[in-house]
């Protein structure tokens, strides 16, 4: 049976870098964001239900989702965010379980931004939270996504705090230095987790 390691962290924290470190150590990963992005394409099973939450204003002329419009609405309205998550999260979880069953590896990483908020941690043998100061995360999100400071802070504050993540996670790692130092700490933790789950 494949055992699941949940990796989480706030936007801009570097959780994807941790997932990459697991990959380098031979542990495959599944990116929940990638599946969630597919959920908002016309080919997905939950597209129509997701769009119905926002109405036709959420559609571009070609029938695809207007992601910028949807993002602006969900980050400013918690009830809309909750409604969208109620449609997308079950779809994402179902797809991740299917991929995990067919991966052929004793361990797999689930890279999930809302690991604890969505209850996905219930599927995990252990969890790792990547922690980082808000100021560094704001700078990373502005640089990476072209967001302004207020947009970056709104995205960060739409998620639980690092204190909550640290309390809920089995393990935590800080990512506030250079990538090489973080990777070395991550590799040591991965070896520990392998021993614990052996």
Q: Could you characterize what this model shows?
A:
- The protein has 198 residues and is an alpha/beta fold.
- The chain has 2 domains: 1-28 and 104-198, Rossmann fold (3-Layer(aba) Sandwich), CATH 3.40.50; 33-102, 3-Layer(aba) Sandwich (Rossmann fold), CATH 3.40.50.300.
- It is 52% helix and 13% strand.
- The protein has 9 helices and 5 strands.
- It has a 5-stranded parallel β-sheet with strand order 2-3-1-4-5, sandwiched between helices.
- It is globular, with a radius of gyration of 17 Å.
- The N and C termini lie close together (12 Å).
- The model has no long low-confidence stretch (mean pLDDT 94).
Number of alpha- plus pi-helical segments: 9
Main β-sheet, spatial strand arrangement: 2-3-1-4-5
**Superfamily at the CATH H level of the largest domain?**
P-loop containing nucleotide triphosphate hydrolases
Helix content: 40-55%
Strand element count = 5
> What oligomeric state best describes the polypeptide chains here?
single chain
Short characterization:
By secondary structure, the protein is of the alpha/beta class.
List keywords for this structure.
alpha/beta, 13% strand, Rossmann fold, 52% helix, 2 domains, 198 residues, five-stranded parallel β-sheet, 5 strands
Structural topology:
Layout: E1 3-9, H1 15-24, E2 29-31, H2 32-39, H3 47-52, H4 67-74, H5 78-101, E3 107-111, E4 126-131, H6 134-145, H7 149-157, H8 162-168, E5 171-174, H9 179-197
